[in-house]
Amino acid sequence: MYEGPVQDLIDELGRLPGVGPKSAQRIAFHLLGAEPADVTRLQEALQKVKEGVVFCDVCGNVSEESTCRICRDARRDPSAVCVVEEPKDVLAIERTREFKGRYHVLGGALDPLSGIGPEQLRIRQLLSRIGSQEITEVILAMDPNTEGEATATYLVRMLRDFPGLTVTRLASGLPMGGDLEFADELTLGRALSGRRTV
Amino acid sequence: MSLYRDTGVVLRVQKLGEADRIITLITRNHGKVRAVAKGVRRTTSRLGARVEPFAHVDVQFYTGRTLDVITQVQTIDAFGAGIVGDYQRYTSACAVLETADRMSAEEGEPVLRLYLLVGGALRALADGTRDPSLVLDAFLLRALAFAGWSPALSECARCGDPGPHRAFSIQAGGSVCPRCKPPGSASPTHEVLTLMAALADGTWAVAERATDAARREASGLVAALLQWHLERQLRSLPLVERRRP
Ligand SMILES: [Zn+2]
Ligand SMILES: [Zn+2]
């Protein structure tokens, strides 16, 4: 244990995802020795992300305005919606250049072990979006792991009763247990073009 | 570097760093084990799919300084395949995992009986031949018994007076006679207590004859007993889908 502010910083850093106690200590001492200007820049970036970034009213993606760039873009196909867990998955799919429709970001996967059920995700918003707009195809692009699969299962059941709606899943080729963000563009692109009706 | 090998069920996976995971397993011989699986979040990992929740696996570990490391995994039963395709089974199976995790608080303490119960419950949920809700409640009652918290279902939990009794008290530990009955006791029907007894000892023919109302009431009592003993709320239990909508 260190004294006061240093230990506070180590504790705060240690709460970040992927940062263990040793890394937290390393980052804290790095910051302690860094140039004041560098620390100020980091401070400002942190501040801005909380104040300047909002979530898109339509799709839930991170955005600078109340409606995100993709939802505003008239060239995007409004009839196809790709449902993903996190904003970083939108980026991953955009990089493939395979998909011309729009997105819906759930904000996670159904994970009862972490207390996350349908009410904790943007599922109700997805259903009302489909009910009120000209959407004819929904592509489910969850992480190829247990929580992702279960989330897709649940959504398939909820979407079954919309008349004229095609629901597709990313084709296999993505091994189970991984994160979508680690798939290479080729694999992910192929998985998208080979998607199937469920 | 010392190696050991065991069979276990994956209870929980947590992200670690860029691409690793910490895997919590309930094992046959080594109790609860937390170990690192390296690189499994990359979609090219061969290990990844094998150490997902619900997987029953044969694992080789080496003893690390803080956490053990998983070096090899072979699948014994891929229970997940039969579970994630049905939301009711999935939420029930999650409650099985969380209960097992909470009841095996001490790492390394042997929990063979609990390990066998978890395997049995996941097998039944994956097979899908029984009502997932009954499978879950049977597991929870047997897990309570494993922990020494079996509810009294016939005799009085306080004085031992042979029943059956009308009143049921979570705090007292089950059925209570009119003299011992604390205020605020529930009064489940005889059918509910019969169902709970059948689930606890695996008399499925009796359990499956129970009405929906009795099943619902039994689920409520079992959940209340579990919460009472575990003190801290289970996250997954309120999210269990009890009946197919
Ligand atoms: Zn948007
Ligand atoms: Zn009594």
Structural class of chain B: alpha+beta
Q: Could you tell me how far the N terminus lies from the C terminus of chain A, measured between alpha carbons in angstroms? A: 54 Å
Q: Share of helix among residues of chain B?
A: 25-40%
The third-level CATH topology of the domain at 75-169 in chain A is: Dna Topoisomerase Vi A Subunit, Chain: A, domain 2
Approximately what portion of the residues of chain A adopt beta-strand conformation?
5-15%
Bound molecules: zinc ion
Number of helices of chain B: 7
- Compute the CA-based radius of gyration of chain B: 20 Å
Tell me, briefly, the overall form of chain A.
elongated
Q: Any idea of the CATH class of the domain at 75-169 in chain A? A: Alpha Beta
Strand order of the largest sheet of chain A: 4-3-5-6-7
Helix percent band of chain A:
40-55%
Mean pLDDT of chain B: 91
End-to-end span of chain B in angstroms? 52 Å
Largest sheet of chain B: 5 strands, mixed, barrel
- What string gives the helices and strands of chain B in order? EEEEEHHHHEEHHH
Mean pLDDT of chain A: 88
Listing every helix as H and every strand as E from the N terminus to the C terminus, the arrangement of chain A reads: HHHEEHEHEHEHEHE
Question: What would the principal axes of the Cα set say about the shape of chain B?
Answer: elongated
Number of helices of chain A: 8
Overall structural class of chain A, as computed from helix and strand content, comes to alpha/beta
Protein name (chain B): DNA repair protein RecO
InterPro entries (chain B): ARFGAP/RecO (IPR037278), DNA_rep/recomb_RecO_N (IPR022572), NA-bd_OB-fold (IPR012340), RecO (IPR003717), RecO_C (IPR042242)
Function (chain B): Involved in DNA repair and RecF pathway recombination.
Keywords (chain B): DNA damage, DNA recombination, DNA repair
